[in-house]
Amino acid sequence: MTTRVLFLDHAGVLSGAELYLLDIARHYVDSSKVLLLADGPFRERLEQVGIAVEVLPAPPAVVGISREGNGGIGDLQAVPGLLTLAWRVARLARNYDVLYANSQKALIVGALAGKLASTPVVWHLRDILSPDHFSPKRRWLAVTLANHLVGRVIANSEASAAAFVRSGGQAERVRVVYNGIDPRLFESVLPTEVDALKEELNLAEVPIIGTFSRLACWKGQHVLLEALTHLPGVHALLVGDALFGEEADYLNALRKRAKALKIADRVHFLGFRRDIPQLMRLSDVVVHTSIAPEPFGRVIVEGMLARRPVVATRAGGTVEIIEDGVSGVLVPPGNAEALAAVLADLLAEPSRGRALARAGYAVALERFSLRAMLEGIEEQLRQGLYDSSAQP
């Protein structure tokens, strides 16, 4: 019998967590619904592929709960709206076998709703619960809810799982299921599409480094700008946009920094794009520049599937994807000189880049397939339901 799942996500924008949920929800399209706590492009994408979706807007005080918050008056003001929202989600959750929280904010609402509805809750942990990303009180809240109100925690990497346990999470509740990506989008890219992009962006006959991520300080795009000062003639594509909170200030700071470094003519801010596979094929090297540990690193696997050499920072889940010097290259976080040196070597020695790309492609197909992710999610949902039914 097909598991009926109510997927809960707090965001209306499209980022990595939402793209993974899009693929997972497709697998349950005939028996499930996605419930969003904010409207936006994500709702449109879900509807385009025939997934049932409903928007239940969170009150402003709940929306204002941040990763860095340390409690206080703001959290107290959010309580009434949070409880009302949880009741509304609970009424819907009673019609499903499991409530699946796709983010930490979704966990706060979903854990309470699951308790009210007597519906098992599964939390997909897509973050590293560390001081780099969350305040002590936010980490405490997450592990407390998970330990007492969640049947199963699905972590997207061993790094995420280990951080959960270090923060006080119960190890027996967490299982690792690596993210998976459908390679077909990358296999279908035509050379003519890449040529058209080169003409559109006026990038013919120049070396191109591509970074693909939302623009946020911890994502480290500023490190790539500093590296470009050591790479004359090399152009950089910054694909992604500022999505949350103060990230717009970071985008403005990046533009100003590019001008100050006198590299603005070689830095291309492309914003949010739908043609990621084509832009990756356009790039000579795909880079990942996060200065804090990355829970997984979707762009790394995408770069591998695009058959491009990938350079990533050595922290968090990235070390579980790349074998340094074999399927990609790892560099110290925040070290522009080291990044520039690796990029210079790869651009000067294309044969090495091609060897890394071949090995990376094989790793991506074998370890990070969409099929493997969906099978892992299904197993954990069923196990979570079994564990819940077995409890007195």
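The above is record 1. Record 2 follows with the same two-line structure.
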Amino acid sequence: MIEHAATEPQSAPSRVAVRQPPSFVRRFARNRAAVAGALTLALMLGAALFSEALSGSSPRAMGEDPLAAPSRAHPFGTDDLGRDIWTGVLYGARVSLLVGVLAAATSSVIGILVGSLAGYYGGRLGDVLMRLTEFFLVIPTFLLALVLVAVSRPSIWNIIVTIGVLGWPSTARLARAEFLSLKEREFVMAARAVGSSPRRILFRQILPNAAPPLIVTTSLGVAAAILVEAGLSFLGLGDPNLFSWGLMLRNSREFLRMAWWMPTFPGLAIFATVLSLNLVGDGLNDALNPRLRQRTG
């Protein structure tokens, strides 16, 4: 019996197929609206980077055919000075994307610093930082931006700094909430036990785990910054040396009835860019949200 048992072939261990969670790209690709938004943003970025090659002229170059309707020679028509609107839209993408990205990055850095310190340390420091945040929240951002830009010299860098400095409170509150919920987790307690410094715990342990919602907020902040810049330029407080979508809308106020194409195409460019950023933000939230990841994983 012993020999028979020894020579009896053993059954191979059963292999259980473990389903791996989908990658970030696959989760993002499941959201078709987000993919469409990302493609639209890619087109806008290409227009900004290759505006000179795509237009072949300057947006301020005046032609001999003012207020010309869209045609093969001028796909988006011309304005009252004969300037090609297609060229203006291409160059306007540079200004809008530059202001949106840099202003959102500025507000994110300030907001993360304020929120992380308030959430991790708490106490009197946290109370002071949160009262400062609430003070900025109750002030109308666009009205304060109007005052600050009007007082200073209107330039693209002043606009970026103004929007960035005024747009951080929402990011700070979100960062504080994330740091409050993460600072008592096991991995943070372990980092404290091995003697890690508070700065290392803040930026090497907690911040990477709090990054997903902050990334989503930053993407939405880009859209908000683009709208604020367009509003400032429409009111005549944009950089006079640059051709922006808001400036094109401002120049078209007196020609709404006789030249519908003058406000239409810059307005559509703003609409498409802001909508795409919001769609991408929703897709990032679906792909980075841990709870949604567990449901779809």
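The CA atoms of residues 20 and 219 lie 28 Å apart.
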